[in-house]
Amino acid sequence: MGETAMTNPFDDPDGIFHVLVNDEEQHSLWPEFVPIPEGWRSVFGPGKRQDCVDYVNENWTDIRPKSLRDAALS
């Protein structure tokens, strides 16, 4: 019985993605064909997966939620 391996669309190296950000400034890669969930907005893309990963690596340098970063400064 042959099984076809399914690629998770969030892990597809050939997929087209957006980089999403929420109010806590957390980032997420999001496949272009999936509707953007409420509470998130696109800040980069659509683009190739690696371009989106590079954007996240360059722009999300402190992975703590914004509320924790703000509390640490108080």
Automatic annotation (TrEMBL):
SUPFAM superfamilies: MbtH-like. Pfam families: MbtH (PF03621). Residues 8-58 form the MbtH-like domain. GO terms for biological process: siderophore biosynthetic process. One of its GO terms (cellular component) is cytosol. InterPro entries: MbtH-like_dom, MbtH-like_sf, MLP_fam. This is Putative MbtH family protein. The lineage of its organism: Bacteria, Pseudomonadati, Pseudomonadota, Alphaproteobacteria, Hyphomicrobiales.
